[in-house]
Design a protein that fits this description.
Blueprint: H1 12-15, H2 21-37, H3 42-46, H4 56-72, H5 84-87, H6 112-132, H7 137-166, E1 190-193, E2 196-200, E3 216-220, E4 223-226, H8 232-240, H9 252-261, E5 269-272, E6 275-280, E7 283-286, H10 298-307, H11 315-321, E8 359-365, E9 391-394, E10 411-413, E11 422-423, E12 427-428
Parallel strand pairs: 8-11
Antiparallel strand pairs: 1-4, 2-3, 4-12, 5-6, 6-7, 8-9, 9-10
């Protein structure tokens, strides 16, 4: 039997005061996380399918742990359960001990009921605090960070559940299948971008993670960038041309990884008598040639680009290229939870599907911008300490909340990661 998540608990004091804008956003995001768990059973929420993924129950608890540790705890409010401080700490060494990430699926206790009670406790205490409207600027920044942090975990819930369900031989659907209709392809063309000195990085008063700044100048050569992401059809042509059997297309470590892991196609692809199918959050579905390809590693993206006679853009090129592109697209709110084909032509000079659908690998390693300084204290561990052996992805995906993405947003993953909705867009001189 599926366990329905109860409404967020709020104290009478909090209910009697009008909610602040920050309080409304807090409630909206917290409710959205719980809505993602609605289709799942308690058993679904407890399983960890691989070390890189986490059980949904852990995500529900950890996002509450963040607010309890960095907001409520800083005000001296007693924790719901002192043991949770260690169990649901992700990677904050300055906070204390952590339960090992690969063993999160062994936490049969606390149970889902206890975790939901934990969420209600944190929501009630946070509701009172936010209704008081007595937060200082630094506290507001931490709450904003916690909201954005929870949106990251909303995407992780979807990607982790997809991997979990794919391990079940029944290939169960997270949500009901959607009707697939014929799609007419949109021809890719190249958009010329003038080189010179450009500025990239966050500026302005809106929220940004510390790794998105400081804003700084970069020197670029003239380049061209593809109007559309690489599609499933494009990648199928790469496979049929022996792309996974040609070592000359691959970086050395990529070829070693391919042979070690037996890659023959992107993650979730399965070849049947009637062609290729892929596992989606709606169950198995035929490959749709005109939709952006996803679940490819950096190594696969790099190999495809070489095969296509092109390359991956740098993150600076990508950010400059999207400067005139509105933030709109297929995000988590659409309910598709899978890349969709482009149905409308973008404005002249604008990139199609730059935001949403698939995260786009770039050729830039995840490194600090000139003048970068991590946040002080334990929160400085949020981004800065991962600036090694990772590559940057841009643009968001079909599992990203729409309000979470910005042109300056820097996602990052190791070169072999494939369980995220990661795709690519080509560039060339």
């Amino acid at each position: 039997m599926k366990k329905r998540l109860g409404p967020m608990a709020r104290s009478p004091a909090a209910q009697s005061r009008p909610a602040t804008p920050l309080g409304l956003e807090f409630r909206r995001v917290r409710a959205a996380t719980e809505a993602l768990a609605e289709p799942l059973s308690a058993e679904d929420c407890a399983i960890q399918s691989m070390p890189d993924a986490s059980p949904v129950k852990w995500h529900l608890a950890h996002t509450s742990w963040f607010f309890e540790t960095f907001v409520l705890g800083a005000r001296g409010i007693a924790p719901f359960d002192p043991a949770f401080r260690m169990l649901f700490n992700s990677y904050y060494e300055a906070v204390g001990e952590r339960h090992p990430r690969p063993r999160r699926g062994l936490l049969s206790r606390p149970g889902l009921d206890d975790v939901l009670a934990y969420r209600r406790h944190v929501d009630g205490a946070m509701g009172e605090l936010l209704a008081s409207d007595r937060l200082g600027p630094s506290e507001r920044r931490v709450v904003e960070l916690g909201i954005q942090h929870e949106q990251q975990h909303q995407e992780l819930i979807l990607t982790d559940v997809k991997h979990l369900l794919s391990c079940n031989p029944l290939r169960p659907a997270y949500r009901k299948p959607w009707p697939l209709t014929p799609i007419h392809g949109t021809r890719r063309h190249w958009i010329a971008i003038a080189g010179g000195v450009h500025e990239i990085g966050h500026r302005g008063s809106g929220f940004a993670f510390d790794n998105e700044g400081p804003r700084h100048r970069v020197a670029l050569e003239d380049f061209e960038i593809a109007s559309h992401p690489v599609t499933h059809g494009d990648f199928l042509a790469f496979i049929e041309d022996g792309g996974y059997r040609r070592p000359e297309l691959w970086l050395a470590t990529g070829w070693d990884t391919l042979r070690e892991r037996g890659w023959e196609a992107p993650a979730y692809w399965e070849r049947g008598d009637d062609g290729w199918h892929t596992f989606t959050l709606h169950g198995m579905a035929p490959i749709e040639a005109n939709t952006p390809v996803c679940h490819v590693s950096f190594y696969e993206a790099e190999a495809f680009a070489r095969w296509a006679g092109a390359r991956l853009p740098t993150e600076a090129e990508w950010e400059v290229a999207v400067a005139a592109t509105p933030i709109a697209g297929n995000f988590a709110e659409s309910g598709a939870l899978h890349p969709l084909a482009c149905r409308e032509a973008p404005a002249p000079g604008a990139l199609a599907q730059a935001f949403g659908d698939v995260w786009e690998w770039t050729r830039s390693d995840y490194a600090p911008y000139p003048g970068y300084r991590a946040d002080e204290g334990a929160l400085g561990e949020y981004n800065g300490k991962f600036m090694a052996n990772q590559y940057v992805l841009r643009g968001g995906s079909c599992a990203t909340p729409a309000s979470h993405i910005r042109p300056t947003y820097r996602n990052f993953f190791p070169t072999a990661a494939r369980w995220q909705f990661s795709g690519l867009r080509l560039a060339r001189p």
